[in-house]
């Protein structure tokens, strides 16, 4: 076999990441990843595990004992929640109003569950009355909803009402908080959510690799009393409990540097204060929203369920989403994204998350977007955005 061709030093482009994730990583988080490795059962790492779990509880606003980072991306935490709480033959109720409700459905089927739907159009939240009707019709064992739908820019309001409906039917509630944890108001205990999962690369501004998950006692009791083991050995929470619980028994080699990174990202959340962080996201994203609207662009969701961390902006006439996205990347090293599923080609998805939710990024984005739209022939007011954003701030 011939020697491989010479490979040069790794030099990825220095992009400003304002898409749906990953978001810009704070320099302190990058520094934490460069600190020395220790073993995943080293007493020093056990202390780091404890600290990370406490910090996660703060961010989730929960006292749940079973709060841990799953080794893997946010989809691993998602599959850990669904794959452990849905047993073969059980029924899971999932939403149809976005891409990630569809992913919930696929994971539930692979866990051996039956899937039923509560319907809502893409770009709208679930109506509690429709959730009530779906429960009355199907009596599901597990109900999943997406708190912050990354594909549509919709925040699900009335969460306590949804959990009340589910619990009145003895169902457990699983919340997708991938694009809300650390950036949008989320209160796991006060809202009576049984299990919630998230991704570190969104509002926590941390590289993917160790993904937050929390379960209350009711959810964990079900995990520990299953009639059949989880179909995934790696994501079996009854086994992971032995590693992240009191025993600290070997299960797998944890991604040590990713846990370092998550711990530091969560320290930044605690230092800022979780409610202050929510307020910063609303303020900075509000300026972005004012700016794009002043340019003549439309945001997809109504104000009542606008999601500050992910702004879905309608693609104006005269341009394509890919043309604008390519222009921003090629001319400004700036990343935004297009739509998924039913909104493919219809929207831009602009993230305002974590370390990326800063005033200077809003000004940069609006300036670059105005240039792209004007150069490509869209019928917009390129000069209006910055002034409106400034007034908002």
UniProtKB/TrEMBL annotation:
Domain Aminotransferase class V, chain residue ranges per copy: 39-296
GO molecular function list: alanine-glyoxylate transaminase activity; L-serine-pyruvate transaminase activity
Transmembrane segments: none
Organism superkingdom: Archaea
Keywords on record: Aminotransferase, Pyridoxal phosphate, Transferase
KW Transferase (keyword) present: yes
Gene3D superfamilies: Aspartate Aminotransferase, domain 1, Type I PLP-dependent aspartate aminotransferase-like (Major domain)
Required co-factors: pyridoxal 5'-phosphate
InterPro entries: Aminotrans_V_dom (IPR000192), PyrdxlP-dep_Trfase (IPR015424), PyrdxlP-dep_Trfase_major (IPR015421), PyrdxlP-dep_Trfase_small (IPR015422), SP_NH2Trfase/AEP_transaminase (IPR024169)
Chain segments carrying region Disordered: 1-26
BP GO terms, sorted: glycine biosynthetic process, by transamination of glyoxylate
Stored PANTHER family: ALANINE--GLYOXYLATE AMINOTRANSFERASE, AMINOTRANSFERASE CLASS V
Homology family: Belongs to the class-V pyridoxal-phosphate-dependent aminotransferase family.
Name of the featured protein: Alanine--glyoxylate aminotransferase family protein
Source organism of this protein record: Salarchaeum japonicum
Species classification: Archaea, Methanobacteriati, Methanobacteriota, Stenosarchaea group, Halobacteria
